[in-house]
């Protein structure tokens, strides 16, 4: 049994990576030529072991002993630092970076699978590493040579950890309304003044320094999003020779007390409160939001991954409970003298378990498909393939963030229900998984914002080219199903083809609507319909793989087929009424008035 068997299925990871996605073919490319199945497995084995040994054991402890604000600093349990240090020492912060700067040069597909182990084990501690990885990736692409020299290597080594500072008290997701200001200093740096809210990992003692990426306005900048710039603001100044110097007047004003993710500090930070806070400009003035979208999009996929893995670990916990908990008897054998049966014998319990399996294994497939698209966009040999991968990733990113973060918590809710009264107690893990997961529909852009992004931008961009490319990719899988020897796969392919026809028709109606508010009023419904269609596609890909000759007697593949059957029979049909409402441009929510509530 693998080290992560109780909170992640390594068999499922291997199936998705090596059978569905054929990740080994990436080793034929120059960037990954030094890798093989053996090195990929070694990275996964290492991640499993670290997650099981150092992240999982303090998951409940950090939830019960959340960080405290004492004398202007954060106090937290020591196990968090031990785990983060081990993650860094293993080289995982630099998993996808060039070997010449100490990176593993792993494909993003393998790296995301590695990171999934830590999300499943302890999402709160994993958040410190996720933010640092995204921070370093942004600086690698958009930072100046000096910024990379001073910050990149320490971030990849774990000496420094990173954050993203976007939101403010008066401007949560509405970044166009931020007020933090940047004034030029004589030496070419900037004085940063203002306050940032909801800053995950914004203060701690886990590293020598914290590198904040801060959105702020230059004096006289254009109003709105076009006037936002991006700055590197370290907690402590970094000297030209790389030594960590004096404090940079980044003050912790308070901690936010969350329903879940309690082990991750969530901070109010004040800049320039008691002296000059120095920042350096990233790239060009007024381009900060464009630069930050790299980190935001990376974080959005990571949020979807985290939501998936919280749903996944809850599913495995409820599966284990259902197999070990004996209660009740078969509906056809109610003799009270007979011993109770394991509750997994009850059809409704199997329904709840099957729904969870369909949600979380489908979502994990989507996350890894997105990771593979990152690899395709960066390393594919021809420009056409790279361009197509970019288009697909643009469309799938809001889905990858929002669908798992909606259906992951639903899976967690079902896990609690399988446990019955025990599931509602703090003695069992599933109540924490639900609380942790409830944050994911909110942060890194609420699911409503992802819906507006998908319908308002992504399916409209480049005259609909990204949308068309996505539909084309799904139709290619339908074509494979049409010629399959497996009758079930052919039937599921027909169902997906019909769903795609509906999606294309609905999208055409919405694109033709000139009234912008009316077109976007039901964007969340469109996101759900789009997301379910995408997950049906993901499941069809898994089913086609599971239907290969010689696998019919294997319980693992039989389980994949049954989960696919469930999704097509129970879930995909639920979006038909969505299309009816969307095509009719139903105005009910839009026309509701404040006074009528």
Count of separate DSSP helical elements: 19
Structural class: alpha+beta
Strand content: 5-15%
Radius of gyration, rounded? 24 Å
How are the strands of the biggest sheet laid out side by side?
4-5-12-7-6
Annotated CATH topology of the domain at 10-157: Butyryl-Coa Dehydrogenase, subunit A, domain 1
Provide the helix percentage: 40-55%
Shape call = globular
What would CATH call the architecture of the domain at 10-157? Orthogonal Bundle
Q: What is the H level of CATH, i.e. the homologous superfamily of the domain at 10-157?
A: Acyl-CoA dehydrogenase/oxidase, N-terminal domain
Mean pLDDT over the full residue set: 96
User: Largest sheet, described in full?
Assistant: 5 strands, mixed, barrel
Q: Termini distance?
A: 55 Å
Number of strands: 12
Unreliable segments (pLDDT under 50, ≥5 consecutive)? none
Which class of the domain at 10-157 in CATH terms? Mainly Alpha
